[in-house]
Amino acid sequence: MDWQSFSLSLQLALVTLALLLPLSIPAAYWLATTRRGIKPWVEGLIALPLVLPPTVIGFYLLIVLGRQSWLGQTYEQLFGQPLVFSFSGLVLASIIFNIPFAVQPIQRAFEAIPLEVREAGQCCGLGFWQRFLRIDLPLSWPGMLSAAVITFAHTLGEFGVVLMVGGNIPGETKTVAISIYDRTQAFDLDGANAMSLLLLAISLTTIVVSYGLVGRMMNARRPV
Amino acid sequence: MSLELELRNHGPDLDLCATLPAGRITALLGPSGCGKTSILRAIAGLLHPARATIRMHGEVWSDSDTRRFIPTRHRPIGFVPQQYGLFPHLTALGNVMMSLRQLPATQRPARAQAFLDQVHIGELADRYPRALSGGQRQRLALARAIAREPQLLLLDEPFSAVDRTTKRLLYVEIKRLHEQLGLTTVLVTHDLDEAAQLASHLCLIDRGRLLQAGPTREVLARPCCESAARLLDIPNIFEGRLDSTGVSGPHFLEWGPHRLKVDERFTAVGPVRWGIQPGNVLMVRDDKPWGDHLENPVACRIVEHVELGADLLVWLTPDGLPEEMLQMRLPARALQRHPLQPGKKMTVCLRRNDLLLFREDAPHAASRPG
Amino acid sequence: MPAVLRLILIALVVLAHGRTTANEAPVIAAAADLRFALERLAEDFQATTGNAVRVSFGSSGNFTTQIENGAPFEIFLSADENYVFRLADQGLTRDRGSLYAVGRIVVFAPHSSILTADEQLDHLGQSIAQGRLHRFAIANPEHAPYGRAARAALQTAGLWPQIQPMLVLGENAAQAAQFASSGSTDGGIIPLSLSKAPQLAALGTFATIPADWHSDEPLRQRMVLLRNAGTTAAAFYRFLQTSEARRTLADFGFVVPDEPMKE
């Protein structure tokens, strides 16, 4: 049982969440409330990681973040080690391929707030931030929880992109999915099985608990 | 001091200019989709028409020429949208407190409770909107709106989702509040009776245009054009011809073979559209002698009659005008005293004061509405 | 926030804490066929010197690309010396490395298979001709030296055109071994070093294919210190050239040169 890879995966998932959620909320709010013509294009871009195979994403990330790229070289100059095949590179890749999982549920949650309720906030004399903090956020909180859970579970299980961009470096980029793959190739099927079961249990529990919670919270916020 | 409006827009179409009296309840009446909600939203600042000039008590809220625009949250308005727009995650007290954010936090609960008491739902302060009935939600929305102590109260078809008994109670509530607070109120509705009961001022709206505005009684009694008449559900609209005997002689209205005396309103000459309220078509009784107070007798034949509650509707065909149908309204008990059989002759009298002259509709409303 | 949610969050944070200590152990990229041999050697090294190394196994071709893209490996043990030369030519290594072993391939037949493993691949040829062979595993010749060697051997045996549609390609030699032994294929051509390991030996029988059948792909396995290698890595590199290490390699089926051939 490779506990190190579990802990690595958990850290990856938590760091991704911590960085991605604060960026997703304003993006989702803009998408939910704007009427500009550019909206479908932005939505399409955001949805790309959903439809592209992880290897395509991984391939392009390798080019964009790799040593030959401007980004990769700048990072290496600043931090002394390459961006790819490092935990930081993984975090960056993880943020990118999780964007639709974080943005879409939050966007739906904002969209579910009836226009009348939003406008009522204005008619009560509330400014933008007051409305956001006291009306939009409380009503969309379940959607944010949903986004967090899905992003977390998805990151725990991500394989293709991590393999392309992270390599298989124990303690650095060897996440639990990679570790299971590795165990299989080492003919340690018991080890692979044990880790798979644990991963399954964690993911299932996370999703069931939060869907239960989310369901209850959404009931309390049904528009009247 | 009043609410002055000038709105022009395409999609939704708006083209009107009106002045609404201060301290009164004005109803915007019109069929669904005629733009009355858009007018209300424009007043609130939620809609941005291509051209808009809105002034309240002389203060400019919107002016396309000078590009001045006061955002909704700074306008002293109370707004009750059609589905009330209540905040589902807050209690009734919490909803009202949202309007009181300019007060210190300690004072808000007490003030909010006072407003809830004023609309008679004080005991429901801890309930959430989903646990309230339709009428209670309506009162809550009202309380939240007046909690801002606004200069203008805007109500968007507030009674459409409520049953009749509750409706009457709410009418009383609105009237009471209006007497207490004296707020200028704009009420959007498609219900003629509602407008007649609540509003002292009436604006008829059709496809974004103002057809007629004025004190309610006047507008209801004297619609000025055919579209207005249709909106007020007046079925008796006819084609006639105005003429005069000699250059300075009295005018008269030719309607088929009938010649009707008219009063001083009818000064033009030529073809004209005219009408009369069904309630103003008077029956001439066989037994009562023909007196001076009766004028413009028109001989007709009864086609059919229908009882509708306390009213009796009678359809008549005037002699000499076989395609026209004149509708008359009588109290239902009249049927007992005067049996009406289809085919029987009857003479009716159309007093000159009751005749309605319709001016030319504006060019883009030439076709019949809806 | 509900109590359950709080509890879960705390548990996650605690679990995630493990990574903070920066792992100083150097990372080694090793060809997949070295799986069991190198794990043993790493254990021996740690027992002797007290220093640990971290090993990643995979296909030599993939590792080469990753190293070219900046992967932070400190030693590269390739299954094909040409990959090492390629890296050396780009200045990514300290020197041109040293030959540590010559690999051999075997034909492997799992116990349940219709196939019998024989050196001359006669039974394989018969099974193909009789239409009884359905799936056969080798490593992907595109980037795995053992795959190329398998292909060369099959070409020498005159079986390559017929067997191509039945091939299952492993991403590296270890995955090919996995496919070959799992029972979902009829067998495969895999490294000798993997077949000799107890985990695999129990699953089937194998026969070593003559070395001159793949003389074009000699499986000259070369290792090299990469440019950023540290002291522990250098120590491990030296350790791999000791007679003790060479004996371990020989135990696992590698042909070990008597003297490490430096060029």
Q: Can you give a write-up of this model?
A:
In chain A, 80% of the residues lie in helices and 0% in strands. Chain A has 224 residues and is mainly α. Chain A has a single domain (3-219), classed as MetI-like (MetI-like fold), CATH 1.10.3720.10. In chain A, helix 1 (3-33) crosses helix 9. The radius of gyration of chain A is 20 Å and the shape is globular. The termini of chain A are far apart. The relative contact order of chain A is 0.16. By secondary structure, chain B is α+β, with helices and mostly antiparallel strands. Helices cover 22% and strands 33% of the residues of chain B. Chain B is elongated, with a radius of gyration of 25 Å. Chain B folds into two domains: 2-223, P-loop containing nucleotide triphosphate hydrolases (Rossmann fold, 3-Layer(aba) Sandwich), CATH 3.40.50; 237-358, OB fold (Dihydrolipoamide Acetyltransferase, E2P). Chain C is α/β, with parallel strands linked by helices and 263 residues long. Chain C folds into two domains: 3-102 and 219-251, Periplasmic binding protein-like II (D-Maltodextrin-Binding Protein, domain 2, 3-Layer(aba) Sandwich); 105-214, Periplasmic binding protein-like II (D-Maltodextrin-Binding Protein, domain 2, 3-Layer(aba) Sandwich). Chain C has helices at 3-15, 35-49, 60-68, 81-89, 122-129, 145-156, 160-163, 173-181, 192-195, 198-201, 231-239, 243-251, and strands at 27-31, 54-58, 75-77, 98-102, 105-110, 136-139, 167-170, 188-191, 204-208, 220-225. In chain C, strand 1 (27-31), helix 2 and strand 2 form a beta-alpha-beta unit. In chain C, helix 3 (60-68) packs parallel to helix 4 (81-89). Residues 15-22 of chain C have low confidence and may be disordered. The interface between A and C is large, with 38 and 36 residues.
